[in-house]
Amino acid sequence: MNIVCLDLEGVLVPEIWIAFAEATGIPELRRTTRDEPDYGKLMQYRLNILKEHGLGLKEIQDTIATIEPFDGAREFLDTLKKQTQVLILSDTFTQFAKPLMQKLGWPTIFCNTLEVSPDGEITGYKMRTKDSKLGTVKALQSIGFDTIACGDSFNDLGMIKNSKDGFLFKSTDQIKADYPEIPSFETYDELLDAIEGALDDQN
Description:
203 residues, alpha/beta, Rossmann fold, thrh gene product, domain 2, 2 domains, seven-stranded mixed sheet, 9 helices, 7 strands, 20% strand
């Protein structure tokens, strides 16, 4: 039995933190998992910047409300869901994800949770599980699923490399150069063809 595991930001929607960096004029917030492999280090860096500038959850949610999925993302997902089960695995947070899931047709997403004080300050975060993407893929495999994974960043490499088939999508030149063995695509048509080929091979 097959299941496709997709990253969210950079694959289906723009990077939330980059959009927020542009909205606030704070370039330091442009740093993402494409740049920093250590997610804990990256999040502490972000929380420090938010605290320094007096920014909280509401300001980020206001920016998220303006974000639209990439052109073709909804159609890609709709087509894929007709062929197999699809699960979005993201290191974003439940407080960020809901409006984006609505725009994508309410796919299933597994993500993390922010810790927020009564005044809206983001004080921390809680990961759903250690190595959440890789851990989820391994758990799915343990109950009989063959996983096909796709992402764009360092934190997607574990689930990509440990799946039956895995792909990079709109990734960085550095990641593509470091992992030439992973097929890489730039359009949804190319990615859909690759996933359909993987599904045919596993059926």
